[in-house]
Structure formats: structure tokens, C-alpha cells
Amino acid sequence: ASTLGASAAASGRYFGTAVAASHLGEAQYASTLDTEFNAVTPENEMKWDATESTQGVFTYSAADQIVAHAQAQNMKIRGHTLVWYSQLPGWVSGLSASALQSAMDNHITSLMTHYKGKIYAWDVVNEAFQDGGSGARRSSPFQDKLGDGYIEHAFRTARAADPNAKLCYNDYNIDGINAKSTAVYNMVKDFKARGVPIDCVGFQGHFNSASPMTSDYQANLQRFADLGVDVQITELDVAGSGTAQADSYTKVVQACMAIQRCTGITVWGITDKYSWRSSDTPLLFDGNYSKKPSYTAVLNALNGT
Ligand code: G3I
């Protein structure tokens, strides 16, 4: 097929992008989105600071705009993200343990109820593990006050709120086999063994020279799939340009295509000009919405050509 979305759909997969509500009014942004992609992830609009900046007062307008656009285009929607240490309003860290537990439950249940039936997969918990060799959990209000059990509690609460949404754990620097990915692997294995509801793991895929894509990438995705969860590439972007960048994209897409349970790929933005790391020119379209070599590489890899 001749677009990213249609090419992914030919093998039952989706090809998505992060989207910002504030750009939907830009004609080229919207037309590139609608032509090329069949899934979206709100880049910031569903995060805690955007949806519940004051306790108990929920603001959905920006996220609703993206959801309405995606639904009108028949696109899948990934919900991002319910429980994360970052972009967390100040009031959350001031709560006692029991109040924090209630606030977390209420946040999860409120968002998932508002979007019930509309979300393909939710990043229920995001970035809960530390970088480096320890495999330890990252400090956060949730970890520090509620302990390790907050993650499974979040997943159980999420399953009750929208039983039809896939529930994902999402993180970065877990793309290859390393101490951090193994810590996540062990958590998922434990969840599956004990019946904690988890359906998918999101591998963000933010690659650059300091954290490159490694040769064990496919093997790492496969070991998670073998636990009985879907794997998704959720925030893909690759610093660089030209052939080197295109080759990295090819390898990532080929790895997903080789794994039956790799259900889709999301790039973290449409055009380099709006990327969170714009100076790395990490995306598939340049600042003028021209297709880069990385675009052609992805299209060919999706089509197996
Ligand atoms: O909304 C405010 C706006 O009101 C204000 O005027 C402006 C001035 O700085 O800031 C705006 O907020 C910014 C927000 O993006 C929306 O544009 C924040 O400062 C900025 O920090 C925020 O960055 C986002 C970042 O997450 C925050 O952690 C990026 O857009 C977003 O791409 C990035 O996405 C994360 C994923 O959620 C999780 N994985 C890593 C990934 C990359 O960091």
C-alpha cells in the first residue's frame, strides 16, 4: 500500500503518531495525519497536569478534540498516560498515602470512564523504573508513599474502569536487553503468573547516539511477547538524518513485523518542526511536511519490499 497506515493495516497492525491538539487547525498537519496514519496518541493532553490540575476538577477539552478527530477518521487511539511521575500537578505530591491512593484511583477511573469504549490501549503506568543497572523502581509520590504494589493496584483499577481497553506498561530504555528491561520483564512475568491484568508493554523507542537501537532489539520484544502480552512501539523517533536514520527505522519496523504480537508502531510526532527534540530531526516528515528517506524506509519495511 502507499501510505503508512494502510501498509500497516495490511498485516493487521496500526501505524500511529503522537498528536498535539493545538496543531490540528494547521491544514498540512491535519492532512498529513489523515492521509498517512491510522492511530493517534495525544502527546500531552491526557496527562495528569492537563486533565486534573486541580483535585477532582477534570478538564477534557483538548483531549476530546483529538479523540473526536481520530474517531471521525476511524483511527485507533492510545491513551497516554494515567500514572506517571512527571507532568504531575503539585497537589498530588502533598497528599498522605491514603489520600494519594484514593486520588490515583479516582484519576484512573475518571479518565477511563470519560473515554470508555473509545481507547484501544491505555498506558496505565509510565516510566516506573530507574535508568542504570539497578533495575530498581524510580522514586515518585506513588512509589515512595504506596510502595511497589501501586503498579498492580493501578492495573486492577484500570481493568474495572474499562474492561475493553488494552492495559499497557510503557517505558524508555527498555528497547534492548538490559537491567531495566529485565526488571520490567520480571514484573510482567509476575503479573501474568498472579493474574494481575496487563495486556501490553509499550517500548518508547527514543533512539539517539547515547541510546541507540541495539542488535538484541527484536529478541527483547520477542521475550516479552512470549510472556503472553502484546508489544507496541509507542514513541518512536530516531535522531539523525539521511541513510543512517532510515536504516535504523528499517530495523525497528522489520523487528515489529517479525513478531506476531507486535500490534503497532507509533512515531512521536508527524513533522520535525514540532518534535519534542526538534534539533535531532527525528521524524519521518521534515519541517515542510516533505517525506524524508526515513519515511520511505518505513513504508518499504511495512510492505516487506
Ligand atoms: O502547556 C504549556 C504551555 O501552557 C506553556 O506556555 C508552555 C511554555 O513552556 O509549556 C507548555 O507545556 C509544555 C508541554 O510539553 C506542552 O507543549 C511543557 O513545558 C513541556 O515540558 C512539555 O513537553 C512534553 C514532555 O513529554 C513533558 O515531559 C513533550 O511535549 C512530550 O513530547 C513529551 O513526551 C514524553 C512522553 O509523554 C513520555 N515519554 C517521553 C516523551 C518525551 O519526553
From TrEMBL:
Documented EC number(s): 3.2.1.8
Catalytic EC class: hydrolase
The GH10 domain, residue ranges: 1-301
GO molecular function: endo-1,4-beta-xylanase activity; polysaccharide binding
Catalytic activity: Endohydrolysis of (1->4)-beta-D-xylosidic linkages in xylans
Domain of life the protein comes from: Bacteria
One record GO biological process: xylan catabolic process
Active site: 235 (nucleophile)
Keywords: Carbohydrate metabolism, Glycosidase, Hydrolase, Polysaccharide degradation, Signal, Xylan degradation
Family the UniProt entry places it in: Belongs to the glycosyl hydrolase 10 (cellulase F) family.
Protein name as annotated: Beta-xylanase
Organism: Actinacidiphila guanduensis
